[in-house]
Amino acid sequence: MSGRKKIIITIDGWSSCGKSTVAKQLAKELNYVYIDSGAMYRAITLYFLRNHIDWTATEEVNEALSNIQLDFRFNEHSQQTEMYLNDENVEYVIRDLVVAEKVSEIAAIREVRNFAVAQQQAMGKKKGIVMDGRDIGTVVFPQAELKIFMTADNTVRVERRFRELYEKNPNVTIEEVKNNLEMRDYIDSNREVSPLRQASDALVLDNSKLTMEQQLEIALSWVKERLLA
Predict the structure, then answer these.
(1) CATH at residue 127
(2) 219 falls in which pLDDT band (50, 70, 90)?
(3) Would you state the pLDDT for residue 1?
């Protein structure tokens, strides 16, 4: 389907809407590069937590960022792209609730966003990428050929997130997950820098009642329209 023409596909939306699932599906189907912007912010958060960075101090933040190297590497065994922080594979560590509780707060810092956005834009220069996040279609790639905004019912989102976290930590409670999602939604949509919002030209994909196959089918039909345009 992709042919010779390559486009940029952005997928924005709330936490636990399945953005990364759709992004990975599309990247695999189209033989595109998948870039998980959330993993980048999670890796930065992990570095800040490990090194006891005071993220309210701009100078300290800038110094910390100068010591951070982020890159995605393809794992032949798992057939997945994984996040590396300073040459360490942190793909699984960054999914922890401790990181999840702080990531929206740290991602709201202007210097952190400038740092991540510059890297994301560099990654997209050759096109042929699928990137998911909060501000990809509005800030990182406002000229993207296809912008998708994902949403889902709150109850569905909490259940999805709970199942994901429970596998790694059976002590987590559904109440903790619900509170974490509500906090992240509030911070993401009310932050001063690059708040989460739907781009005016984004197509809305509500997957509350869709299977993974159905959501992929819808997204692929939109890709086909753009590639033929």
Answers:
(1) 3.40.50.300
(2) very high
(3) 53
